[in-house]
């Protein structure tokens, strides 16, 4: 996927003027957040589960090597193979080598954001292997030569008419605007791909160390067909997905569905434990797990370690006012929203993604709804610090911060400036209670009025309240 994060401001400006996108985002705001809230009301112990999951994830990260080795041992005992891949390129090559071993020409894919991260589809196509996305949203995007704008609802930026036009163009069938008919049409086309595919590839929501199992959760069932019909099943996933036991996995599944879509449980929860056994009626003859690092191990022990707790529920972006205004494509790479604003700078470099940690209102809603309590706003601030250290911020911003620091280090001068600024904004610039134009604040006043300050400054009010309290105590 081409990196467009440096163009975030331009991307966002285009998104804000895209009428169809804004309509789709308007519907989105009243979907997942409401469903999540209702699901949580029905689970009184939800907050306790969040604490338990956070602590368990911290334990896993501290012992990541141990659980990954245990997972590998059990995969091998079950007859499977594990491929350790440091980079995205290593992962793509490992998958291509497996395809060559079985002379694969077609590979069906269950939904996998890690394969988006590695650019797997483009790599396979360039090397003579045809990938076919089987998740309905991903399939639509593949036909349109598009990319996901959301990690669990990849085509959320499209409407029914977009899908109708796309299917009519590629399937050469009569156009229809009936969602049920469109789903039936996709099912008929994809059924042939499922049956004829040489290799099936899925992601994994979790890896179970004690059994060597992988699990994929879907609402369409395409993951089951992808991993059971072809003779070879490949799982591509990232190293932080490992959990110690099946019981631990169930804890995360209870949080995942409720946080993601507001369901009690995802419709399909499919465990894979090695290749087909002699007593099995169906299943793959070959089972491979491709474990992708791609910079994650470097996050352990740093200020970004907490990001490895993420279970990819998308709750942070579902509640983010910035994502809700500009959509996922504005973020310019695989992972959008608050979680992407932390992950993307690590994976492609802060020099290419500096806008993303700044694309936040710092309202804290993302941390409030995260099922594993990831302090996303704090980590975005850490990236801003690194951006500043590398002199990536504009000179005007650096000059402004330096000016503020000068006054902040001189309390008496700071208080004078605060009083003077408040007076100017309330009596000169904002005579009618609002400010239409303000020097150095065009980014705000060019688009909306700024409320004029009312009353005394905060410090003056604090001083008056403290004096009143002291008088009362006497």
TrEMBL record:
GO terms for molecular function: 4 iron, 4 sulfur cluster binding; metal ion binding. Keywords: 4Fe-4S, Electron transport, Iron, Iron-sulfur, Metal-binding, Repeat, Transport. This is Putative iron-sulfur binding protein. SUPFAM superfamilies: alpha-helical ferredoxin (SSF46548), NagB/RpiA/CoA transferase-like (SSF100950). Residues 301-331 form the 4Fe-4S ferredoxin-type domain. It holds the Pfam family Fer4_8. One of its GO terms (biological process) is lactate metabolic process. The keyword 4Fe-4S applies. It comes from the Bacteria. The keyword Iron-sulfur applies.
């Amino acid at each position: 996927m081409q990196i467009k994060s440096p163009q975030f401001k331009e991307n966002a400006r285009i998104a804000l003027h895209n009428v169809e996108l804004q309509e789709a985002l308007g519907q989105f705001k009243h979907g997942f957040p409401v469903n999540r809230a209702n699901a949580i009301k029905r689970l009184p112990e939800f907050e306790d589960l969040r604490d338990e999951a956070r602590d368990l994830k911290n334990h896993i990260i501290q012992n990541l090597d141990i659980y990954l080795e245990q997972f590998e041992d059990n995969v091998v005992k079950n007859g499977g193979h594990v491929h350790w891949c440091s980079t995205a390129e290593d992962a793509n090559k490992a998958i291509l080598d497996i395809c060559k071993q079985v002379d694969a020409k077609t590979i069906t894919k269950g939904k996998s954001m890690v394969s988006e991260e590695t650019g797997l589809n483009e790599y396979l196509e360039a090397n003579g292997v045809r990938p076919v996305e089987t998740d309905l949203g991903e399939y639509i995007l593949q036909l349109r030569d598009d990319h996901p704008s959301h990690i669990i609802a990849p085509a959320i930026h499209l409407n029914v008419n977009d899908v109708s036009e796309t299917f009519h163009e590629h399937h050469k069938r009569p156009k229809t605007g009936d969602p049920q008919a469109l789903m039936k049409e996709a099912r008929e086309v994809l059924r042939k791909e499922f049956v004829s595919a040489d290799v099936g590839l899925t992601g994994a929501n979790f890896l179970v160390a004690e059994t060597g199992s992988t699990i994929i959760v879907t609402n369409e069932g395409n993951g089951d067909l992808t991993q059971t019909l072809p003779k070879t099943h490949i799982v591509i996933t990232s190293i932080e997905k490992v959990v110690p036991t099946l019981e631990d996995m169930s804890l995360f599944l209870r949080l995942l569905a409720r946080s993601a879509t507001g369901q009690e449980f995802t419709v399909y929860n499919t465990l894979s434990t090695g290749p087909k056994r002699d007593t099995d009626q169906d299943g793959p003859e070959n089972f491979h797990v491709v474990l992708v690092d791609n910079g994650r191990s470097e996050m352990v022990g740093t200020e970004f370690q907490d990001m490895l707790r993420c279970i990819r529920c998308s709750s942070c972006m579902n509640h983010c006012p910035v994502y809700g205004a500009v959509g996922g494509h504005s973020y310019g790479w695989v992972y959008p929203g608050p979680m992407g604003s932390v992950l993307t700078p690590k994976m492609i470099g802060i020099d290419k993604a500096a806008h993303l940690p700044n694309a936040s209102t710092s309202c804290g809603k993302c941390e409030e709804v995260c099922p594993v309590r990831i302090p996303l706003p704090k980590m975005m601030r850490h990236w801003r610090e690194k951006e500043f250290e590398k002199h990536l911020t504009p000179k005007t911003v650096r000059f402004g911060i330096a000016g503020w620091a000068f006054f902040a280090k001189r309390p008496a001068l700071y208080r004078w400036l605060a009083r003077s600024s408040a007076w100017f904004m309330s009596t000169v610039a904002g005579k009618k209670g609002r400010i239409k134009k303000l020097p150095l604040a065009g980014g705000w006043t060019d688009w909306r009025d700024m409320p004029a300050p009312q009353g005394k400054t905060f410090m003056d009010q604090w001083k008056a309240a403290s004096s009143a309290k002291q008088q009362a105590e006497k």
